[in-house]
Amino acid sequence: MTCQPNRRRPGLRALLLLAAAWSALADARPPAAPVRDVVDTYHGVAVHDPYRDLEDLKNPATQAWMAAQGAWASQTLAAIDGRDALAARIAELTQSGGDAIGEMVRVRGGRVFYLKRPEGSSQFKLMVRDGLGGAERVLVDPEAIARRHGGVPHAINYMMPSWDGQRVAYGLSAAGSEDAWLHVIETATARERIRPVPRVQEALVHWTPDSRALTYNQLRRLPPSADPTEFYLDSMVYLQRLGQARPQPIFGRLLRHDLGIDRLDVAGVQFQAGSRFMVARTTDTTVPEGRIFVAPLSDLGRPRARWRALVTAADQVTDLALDGDQLYLRSRQGAPNGRWLVLDLARGDTLAEARTAVAEPAQGVLQRLLPRPDGLVVTVSQGFTQQLMRVGPDGRVGAPLTPGLSGYHEAVADLGRAPDIWLRTSEWTAPPRILRTQADGPPLDTGLQPVRLPKGAPALVAREVLVPSHDGVPVPLAIVHRAGLAMDGQRPTLLEGYASYGSSIEAHYSRRALAWLEKGGVLAFVNARGSGAFGDAWHRAGFKTTKANTWKDGIAAAKYLIAQGITRPAKLAVNGGSAGGIFVGRASTEAPELFAAAVYEVGSLDTVRAEFTANGITNISEFGTVKDPAEFKALLEMSTYHQIRDGVAYPAVLLIHGMNDPRVEVWNSSKTAARLQAANPNGKPVLLRLDAQAGHGIGSTANQFDQQVADMFSFLWWQMGEVTGPTLR
């Protein structure tokens, strides 16, 4: 899902003051939201929206209501037995498992840049070291920045070093907003090289091969009165040469009307060391298909660069890799699980003249391609796993680079194309590692992220199964629990799903989740249709008008967990976040009898109104538009808010949202909370947990996540009867 900049939330101080006042009213339920039903008619269907007023976050009445709801949720969660002890245990698990390593990029000469949250720290820092034996240095410390700004959390959204490693560009945002400012610093001194640039939201930052300039995509500056849907439109790519005060616009619709660029196209202009060409790629930031243009590198900065159109969205090209004069393109046209094509740019090849470089694999989904000095390497995914594979001289996927290793493996970005490949491992039952390949023999551990179990962590087991869905289609489900745990039908079980954009849940080890597992809980993950577990066809089977398969697959997984004697409805909960709000919201409203509780995290819950928001307009390509009769019908069906019915015994619901969320407007949660509370006022609790210093989760500190997970697990155990909680009037 795309990054949308933060729009300042007026009245936030008033909201916090009201929350403080409300917290004094112990055990009092918050007031019901006032109803002013707005009726929209689409294709002859009247759609009721009784809480439309909650979309107006400037309205004092809305602020007061949200303050009361947030305060009531906070005091209720705090009163659950053992909640504080659980929070302390989660913090211990988070901090005692060693350092956490995030994004990593290698450059020529062995220098490596990475994001690292040292043990005991709360936020990722930008680090650099010269080779594995070199001492690491902190370049940017967001915690120190936060202290200089009144404690407001800051986070690094992205980073990209220059080819020679002498400089690094990064994006910095505050309070979970993802409203990133672009910075460029010298590696040796951390000295700023350019004036920070606002509104650089996407990680579309690319250095020229000589490391003396970079390109970036910047959103327009809009007046406060602008329609929200204008936010992403007509962005521009700029070239910033070091030593020059002003950047130069080089690519965008407002600059080149002759190229047929759409208003929603968000572009990046990228380069490759040793290539005589530059490539511009545009997408709507949601689907990978878009336009691709190529021009001679010598045209960079010229008023009329000779851009040649190579690809449109109809060509179904989803990725690219530039290698000298060769341009590799991943296409799903005629190959649902992907194939890689190659064009000779010096010869002026068109897409029609492309030859197949890597054929569609017999099994799995072909993903990223890495041109190497000794040949091509690709990643192939299936279900919850991904492997790095060599490509044979015949263009077919060959042997894995890491034979005998299971789980999800991802290559570390390498701008210098060193002779060895670094890869990150991710498994259900073991902490991640960073390995490096060697010419002969098994991969070696780099030591950058040594295996270290958190204090008291239990041994885990995992199994992956295929579960028949409502229409008989087998759906992948992973089940993780403590070793030796008896499956007696009484296990507190949490089922999680996402299933949008073709993105899949991969095998992973979560330190915080150990707090659930060590108490005898079970975690289950489903890659429902809408994910990319089995390629593009799997994605399209949970997409727009077929989206219902997403939550029906989740319901099938829940029934399987019950039928297998793992749990029962009184001990089963369901969870989903962001676009996974559709999964959790509709599973828990269509089959409420299966669940004791549900957690909606920053969920997309009102899909009918989504396209009238800044980020929602970019998601039309994934979920549909109300302007199309068939897609409107599907949007109404997938909208949790509109599917809530009066008098239904829904499970207990915890809605979690950050007030600065730039991707899913916070009113998705507030409107849904109001509707659930009104539908069954004497039913199970519906809590709206709000964080004024958070957004969509990206940029939140370790402590914010620790507290959120403690609230979530406490809430679920309370509703499953594992612990006692407050008596609500």
UniProtKB/TrEMBL annotation:
Biological processes, Gene Ontology terms: proteolysis
Protease among keywords: yes
Domain Peptidase S9 prolyl oligopeptidase catalytic, chain residue ranges per copy: 509-721
GO MF annotations, alphabetized: oligopeptidase activity; serine-type endopeptidase activity
Any one annotated GO CC term: cytosol
Broad EC category: hydrolase
Keyword list, A-Z: Hydrolase, Protease, Serine protease, Signal
PROSITE patterns listed in its UniProt record: PRO_ENDOPEP_SER
E.C. no: 3.4.21.26
InterPro entries, A to Z: AB_hydrolase_fold, Pept_S9_AS, Pept_S9A_N, Peptidase_S9_cat, Peptidase_S9A, Prolyl_oligopep/macrocyclase
Position of the signal peptide: 1-26
Catalysis: reaction(s): Hydrolysis of Pro-|-Xaa >> Ala-|-Xaa in oligopeptides
All residue ranges annotated as the Peptidase S9A N-terminal domain in the record: 30-392
A Pfam family recorded for this sequence: Peptidase_S9_N
PANTHER family, A to Z: PROLYL ENDOPEPTIDASE
Family, similarity comment: Belongs to the peptidase S9A family.
Name of the protein in question: prolyl oligopeptidase
Species of the source: Ideonella alba
Taxonomic placement: Bacteria, Pseudomonadati, Pseudomonadota, Betaproteobacteria, Burkholderiales
